[in-house]
Amino acid sequence: MPLENKKIIALVSDDFEDLELWYPVLRLREAGATVHLVAEKKETVYHGKYGVPVTSNYSFDEVTKEEYDGILVPGGWSPDKLRRFPKVIEFVQYFNQQKKPIGQICHAGWVLISAGILNGVNVTSTPGIKDDMTNAGAIWHDIPAITDGHIISSRRPPDLPEYMKQYIAAFE
């Protein structure tokens, strides 16, 4: 189990892209990681764009970021909501400062933009936010997934297998 004893935050808010949350969570758990679903409210049901539910384990305020080894930001429309929470920005900035794996896919780049951590970083995302990413100083690539140090990014659901290979490898 390559990720045994690793703890990872998966951020949750309504309108997440169902596959972009669940596929990584399941892959990480299969690899031995403990993944906590963290949202504005504890033990609350949130729904993905296609209706798939998820129940949060903890609220943003209950999480001690120092206890975690990585963070995942799913895509969909939830990143636009997530980036409005100061705690979410604090989490992403902390993981960036500590050089711990930060995974982002599709529209999740919005959260990293709001955290101000993309200047000079090689990334990918949905082409719909390419301009946002480059305006934040990122170097954007139209490829399935890319790792730049501790930041792992991907474009969309068909790219999930490559994204998760790179994300899991970031812990090794």
TrEMBL record:
UniProt xrefs under SUPFAM superfamilies: Class I glutamine amidotransferase-like
Domain of life from the UniProt record: Bacteria
Pfam families cross-referenced by the UniProt entry: DJ-1_PfpI (PF01965)
Cross-referenced InterPro entries: C56_PfpI-like, Class_I_gatase-like, DJ-1/PfpI
Residues covered by the DJ-1/PfpI domain: 6-169
Gene3D superfamilies: 3.40.50.880
Entry-linked CDD domains: GATase1_PfpI_like
Stored PANTHER family: DJ-1 PROTEIN, DJ-1_PFPI DOMAIN-CONTAINING PROTEIN
Family (UniProt): Belongs to the peptidase C56 family.
Name this protein carries in UniProt: DJ-1/PfpI/YhbO family deglycase/protease
Organism annotation: Carnobacterium inhibens
